[in-house]
Design brief:
The protein is mainly alpha-helical and 310 residues long. It has helices at residues 14-38, 44-65, 73-97, 103-110, 113-123, 132-149, 162-184, 191-213, 215-218, 226-253, 256-259, 262-277, 284-309.
């Protein structure tokens, strides 16, 4: 797999940024469907752990062949923290949640991730307090999540699994903390080397979670379907090698608020794919909640961008 040249030599071009944003918009929007398909015959944490260990190993091997130095102890340590936050706390919780939550709804709930990123930036040392407009949008976004989850309705009436919803919202917190920490942490590694280390360390943490969850005893290799293997390969090659590496690169070359815009493009892709391929329903509630969530995150991103220019 071709790896983009190191961005350290010069600032990225506008074209490079457009291609990178397009990649995380479309690729990550499709990974929710890929995860849902793999879970039909693969246990959650084991699947996620092997996925990132494979992707991290391939990326690090390619980078080493291209002359990248072996990572230092500090680079391993910092990226182990980032990888655990992003991939165990962030991705792992999402994969587990998709056992009970449809892929499109999962992506919609993750649409509130920029809200958590704004709060994380504010809480970070030297961070900026959100404006009144941003605070209002935060409340609007949470209103969308509450409307989507509908905790006041009975299960028979279509209520989402609250444990799954809680896991997804928790994953947003872990992802936000890991993202902001990765932006501020100083370790000197090239962004693609950092991505490889994060996938290797995060994948290891996911394998430990798999052991605790009983995935090693529940897996039935002979029962894994061909389409599950196909979805798994897609997650490794595009979702992780391309998508995750691109995300890490963008966090070093763009603002967190702009990078977070993937969270309101992904749901559109995920809902459409879930409807087209898995026949997941698109209800009036889904449409209303998605409109509320998308409106909230667009307001926040626009407000943050204005703040950065002032």
């Amino acid at each position: 797999m071709p790896v983009p040249p190191s961005p350290a030599a010069s600032p990225p071009t506008r074209l490079a940024l457009v291609v990178a944003f397009t990649a995380i918009y479309l690729i990550w929007g499709s990974t929710y469907l890929g995860i849902r398909v793999t879970l039909e015959s693969m246990p959650p944490f084991l699947m996620a752990g092997v996925r990132f260990l494979l992707a991290g190993s391939i990326l690090l091997a390619v980078l080493r062949l291209r002359g990248a130095p072996w990572p230092t102890r500090r680079q391993w340590g910092v990226n182990a923290i980032v990888g655990t936050l992003l991939l165990l706390g962030g991705n792992g919780a999402v994969v587990w949640a998709e056992l009970t939550i449809p892929s499109g709804i999962t992506a919609l709930l993750i649409g509130v991730a920029p809200l958590f990123i704004v709060l994380t930036e504010w809480a970070w040392p030297g961070g900026t307090r959100p404006t009144a407009v941003t605070a209002t949008a935060l409340l609007l976004g949470f209103a969308g999540v509450v409307w989507l989850a509908a905790p006041w309705e009975s299960a028979a009436g279509g209520r989402l699994n609250l444990a799954g919803v809680g896991a997804i919202l928790g994953s947003c917190v872990f992802w936000s903390v890991g993202s902001i920490y990765s932006r501020h942490a100083r370790h000197g590694a090239d962004p693609f080397v950092a991505a490889a280390l994060q996938m290797l360390c995060g994948g290891t943490a996911l394998m430990l979670a798999a052991a605790l969850h009983g995935d090693f005893t529940s897996v039935r290799p002979a029962e894994i379907t061909a389409r599950a293997w196909g979805a798994f390969s897609y997650l490794v090659l595009l979702g992780s090698l391309v998508g995750f590496s691109t995300f890490v690169w963008l966090m070093k070359h763009s603002t967190p608020a702009r990078v977070a815009t993937y969270a309101y493009v992904n749901p559109v892709v995920a809902v459409l794919l879930g409807w087209l391929i898995l026949d997941e329903p698109i209800t009036t509630r889904t449409l209303i909640a998605s409109a509320i969530i998308v409106t909230a995150v667009v307001i926040i991103t626009t407000e943050k961008s204005r703040g950065a220019k002032s």
